[in-house]
Design a protein that fits this description.
CATH superfamily of the largest domain: Immunoglobulins
CATH architecture of the largest domain: Sandwich
Distance between the termini: 43 Å
Structural class: mainly beta
Radius of gyration: 21 Å
Number of helices: 0
Number of strands: 16
Number of domains: 2
Shape: elongated
Length: 212
């Protein structure tokens, strides 16, 4: 595996060792030309970094004591890509893409139907995306969930440890551009329509059925 995290904080943070930690985020949205710390985390031997298909060089994990390979890169809009290698062979990759402004909600459900037994559960996975469909990591828009049909909204989970909003009502702010919605079937069959909306965003609708 390989994962990229970036930060605009380049100042020395103290001695580097196996227990050193950096705060980085999987984003590639900065000011043009700004020097950014790019950090690659991997269990492979080496990682090659590309910016808009131009190689910025290959670095070996053994050369970094805290097992975080780093580059200092002037920001350029586009795509940052890491390719991890073992014995010179490409085995994993990870991409970061410069995103636009929040534009629409994309939602997917993990079930095509539920049983009408008051126990069956479904999960809706919601993402806040730009016009191109890229998830916006920094998006925290408030989402409203409206349901028609025999299901119960159990909760809306944003995974934000500092959030104190009501988990069980039908409004919740996204965190890192995502939200998870839990639904429980009733004891009646019927068609379900879930409408997801937020001010300024194109909404999404999820449809499925509860069956006897």
């Amino acid at each position: 595996m390989v994962f990229l995290g970036t930060s605009d904080r380049l100042a020395d943070r103290g001695p580097v060792n196996l227990w050193s930690h950096k705060r980085v985020d999987p984003v590639w949205n900065y000011k043009e030309g700004q020097i950014i710390s790019v950090n690659a985390f991997s269990n492979c031997e080496e990682v090659e970094l590309y910016l808009n298909n131009k190689s910025l060089g290959t670095r070996k994990m053994k050369d970094f004591q805290n097992r975080t390979i780093t580059w200092e890169v002037p920001f350029e809009k586009g795509m940052l890509m890491a390719i991890a290698k073992n014995n010179g062979e490409e085995v994993a990759e990870y991409k970061l893409i410069t995103t636009g402004s929040p534009a629409r909600i994309i939602a997917e459900i993990d079930r095509k139907s539920l049983k009408a037994d008051r126990q069956d559960l479904a999960h809706i996975f919601l993402k806040i995306c730009d016009e191109a469909g890229n998830t916006i990591y920094t998006a925290e828009n408030e989402i409203t969930c409206e349901i028609t049909g025999p299901v119960k909204l159990l909760g809306m989970e944003d995974s934000n440890p500092s959030n104190i909003e009501d988990y069980k009502d039908n409004r919740q702010h996204a965190f890192h551009g995502k939200l998870l919605i839990y639904l429980q079937s009733a004891d009646k069959s019927g068609h379900i329509t879930v409408r997801l909306s937020s001010d300024g965003l194109q909404g999404a609708t999820v449809d499925f059925d509860v069956l006897q």
